[in-house]
Amino acid sequence: MPESKRRKKKATYTPPTAPAEAKESPRWWVPTAVVLMVVGMLWVVVTYIVQAAGPIPGIGNLNLAIGFVVLLVGFLMTLRWR
């Protein structure tokens, strides 16, 4: 009977190298994120209080979008903080 081919041996397992240490965030990162979140929240609150007539008059409910974007940028900055 014919002999089956032998399987090649796989190389032994070598663990991956240790990941490089993550850099710390700059000192201005957290204060900037907090300020952006507060400004965004205040922007939305002012928009509701003045019934979409401000903080930038003439653009109506787009003021809400601006406030939420500023708030979201601040929140996303907290996700990148180390």
TrEMBL record:
InterPro entries: CrgA. It is found in: Cell membrane. Keywords: Cell cycle, Cell division, Cell membrane, Membrane, Transmembrane, Transmembrane helix. Residues 1-23 are annotated as: Disordered. Residues 1-11 have a biased composition (Basic residues). The keyword Iron does not apply. Its main location: membrane. One of its GO terms (biological process) is cell division. It comes from the Bacteria. The keyword Cytoplasm does not apply. GO terms for cellular component: plasma membrane. The chain crosses the membrane at residues 28-50, 62-79. Belongs to the CrgA family. Involved in cell division. This is Cell division protein CrgA. It comes from Georgenia satyanarayanai.
